Amino acid sequence: MKSQYTKMLLVQLFLIVFFLFNFIIDRFYNTYLYLVELLIIGLVFWKVVGTEKRSDKTKTDLLLLIIIATISYYVFTYFIGFFIGFIYTTYSRRFLGIVRNIILVVAFILLNESIREMIIKKSRYYFSLIISSVFVFTALELVTNVTLMNINTKEDVLRVFLTLVVPIFVKNIFLTFSTYTTDKFNSIIYQLLMMVPNYLVPVFPDFGEYITVTLLTIQPIITMVVALRILYFKREKVQNTKKYMVFKNFQKIFLTFLLLFLVLVVYLISGFGRHITLAIGSASMTGTFSKGDLVFIDKKKAAYEKGDIIAFRQENTVIVHRIIEVISNDDNFYYLTKGDANNGEDVWVLKEEDIIGKYIGKIKWVGWPTVLLSELVHG
Amino acid sequence: MQRDRKTEVYYVTIGILVFAVLMLGVAYASLNSTLKKSSAFAHPFVATWDVGFEPGKVLGKSLSYSAGNNKSCGSIDVTENIVSIGNLGLNTPGYGCSYALKIRNRGSVSAKIDEIISSQPSGKTCSVKEDSIMTCGNLTYKLTYDYGGKKLLTTGDRLDAQIGVLPVYLIIMYSGSDIENNDIQVGASFTLIYNQV
User: Fold this and answer.
1) Deepest of A111, A202, A261, B185, by most Cβ within 10 A of its Cβ?
2) Which residues of B touch A158 (CB under 8 A)?
């Protein structure tokens, strides 16, 4: 048993060295070369550690759940797309270009998932190896995006982390779970359903970066939560005691509220709806709200008056200050503003199109994590 | 998986969900002032896409062809897909302005120019020739690969994968035959749409 652990640990270490090798030689990076490398590794692993098949009811049920979850994802996102608009994909729209892209991505998925299955099946008794494999496969997939990693500033580091590392890491948690509980087949189907349509469909919903990354991140986690509840917990004998039933009902209510809370967080941060939240990064309005407070802005267009507190864009940043004068000129309105704690008025004259919305309330201190991260990134 | 282990995984997964949503919210809110919607952003896949102008990187602005006082090359704004001119004013044949820009392909797939969309300056009517030549009043705008203005950018031009950066030029010439009042133009622009080859 100990030798098996050591063997699988060495396999994972080898994959990390493989990742570092490809990462370092990214100047010569080539998709075809990478696939050939993966193929060689897959064949060596197959020879050394072998593979095994599994077929039971859980496998077909998980497959059904994956199909329902991915189709629901596309129906939901493309339905919302009809309201917010679509943008063209940058991938080829020529038949041969589409075929080339799909062949590449399918080859990558098949090799990746085969290697994952070999490692996970042989590490099944070592939970620490299962966990470390998530990091290893995240690293391997990051190699395929190495040319996107144009990192010059702290902001670039944060962007790469958010747009690449987080969604790939979370997806690999789900794929590891799927392969561990059944076999590679379901993981392959999931990857195909999530990736291939992006090369076939010429447009995708214009959610912007934040919503797109959030959707890509939560989709596999929610699928995994549902899989654990439906496929595994409900099948097992449960206690029918009153205490247990109270606990289960409490759990359902808690999860419902948690989900609603998360939807509200995404809604408020994205600014897609009528309201948006902003973290206050300066002390210019001390007395009304302080640095680190989270303020709520109503984006409904209104006739702004003297004394209103408004959020507006100026000098590539968002500022929340009070209107101290409204100037009317030929049906156009211009606004002078000032921070309550500042000595002088602001130097700019705002036009209506500069204004994002009107301040309606605050929560104290909740914005501190955002403020601290912003100061770390922007200096 | 044992039931205890499954329960652990279940609660840890819910924890990851909550943490991921809050962490993404906090992080993107901190980028709020610079957050842009970008058509270049796609899902993380095997092929990577990084094509466009180098935003904000204008190598130099120069008056060319002849000297004179009654001219202004205005300002230029360069984003990933759009190059636009602020306030421009010329009045003499032979006067012109030239902006040296950079166009890049750092992605792992080759790209081609799918469309060149020219937008006329406010209040002017323009005629467009060969995709990247636009004449508005007495001024002619050209997007070219050479400083001399001969090799035009056209639809179908290819940018090979990982080619790095290429110089391109936006040249504006006074095309009237006589000296007239300053032809002031605001907001002319070219938008380049790329596609995978």
Assistant:
1) B185
2) 27, 30-31
Read off the pLDDT of residues B36-47 as tens digits, 9 standing for 90 and up.
Answer: 333 333 344 445
- Select from B143, B196, B150 the least CA-distant residue to B172: B143
- Pairing relationship of beta strands B164-174 and B96-105 according to DSSP bridges: antiparallel
CATH number at residue A351: 2.10.109.10
Closest Cβ opposite residue B45 in set A163, A195, A258: A195
For chain A positions 219-258, those within 8 Å of chain B (CB to CB) are 221-222, 224-225, 228-229, 232-233, 236, 255, 258
Residues of A that are catalytic = 284, 321, 346
- Tens of pLDDT, residues A340-357: 988 888 878 888 888 999
Predicted confidence (pLDDT) at residue B67 exceeds the cutoff of 50:
no
Full domain range(s) for residue B78? 51-196
Find the domain containing A197 and state its range.
Answer: 2-231
A327 touching B, CB under 8 A? no
Q: How many domains does chain A have?
A: 3
Domain boundary among A231, A260, A288: A231
Domain count for chain B: 2
d(CA A169, CA A158): 15
What ranges make up the beta strands (E) of B66-125? 76-78, 82-85, 87-90, 96-105, 111-119
* Residue A110, pLDDT score: 93
Same domain? B28 vs B95? no
Q: Which of A87, A127, A225 minimises the CB distance to B17?
A: A225
Pairwise CB contact (< 8 Å): B42 & A266: no
Q: CA nearest B8 in A: which residue?
A: A228
Q: Which residues of A16-42 are buried (b: 16+ CB within 10 A; e: fewer)?
A: eebbeebeeeeeebebeebbeebeebb
A-B contacts (CB, under 8 Å): 180
pLDDT per residue as tens digits for the range A63-100: 999 999 999 999 999 999 888 888 777 777 778 888 88
**Does residue B24 sit in the same domain as residue B74?**
no
DSSP state of A54: -
